[in-house]
Amino acid sequence: MDFWDEGVIAMEVKVYRVKGVFERNGKREEFRKEYRAVKKEDVLERVYSEIGSKHRVKRNKIWIEGVEEIKPEEAKDPIVRKLSGL
């Protein structure tokens, strides 16, 4: 019996681009980040975690304007491209 025959679902890792704004010291700063993840929800959690940690911003001061799935070739982040096998 093969591993895949036991009802285990293979999950595909996708590339996502996130655009948004965060507020720090009364100033708004735009951001654009790219991540590899299985689900959109995983990407959102990572954005809140990274920006909050790096810029000392609370989650209610981070506004996500959009999350889109992109092709790995469209990624501009060299690390994301390398991990995608490009």
Description:
The protein is α+β, with helices and mostly antiparallel strands. It contains 2 helices and 3 strands, in the order ββαβα. A 3-stranded antiparallel sheet has the order 2-1-3, covered by helices on one side. It is globular and about 50 Å long.
List the helices and strands and how they pair.
Elements: E1 14-24, E2 27-37, H1 40-55, E3 62-70, H2 78-83
Round the Cα radius of gyration to an integer and report it.
16 Å
The N- and C-terminal alpha carbons lie at a distance of 34 Å
Indicate the low-confidence ranges by residue numbers: none
What oligomeric state do the depicted chains represent? single chain
Main beta-sheet annotation: 3 strands, antiparallel
Number of strands: 3
Helix content: 25-40%
Determine the mean pLDDT.
Answer: 90
Number of helices: 2
Summarize the structure.
With 86 residues, the protein is α+β, with helices and mostly antiparallel strands. It has helices spanning 40-55, 78-83; strands at 14-24, 27-37, 62-70.
Which key features would you list for this structure?
86 residues; alpha+beta; three-stranded antiparallel sheet
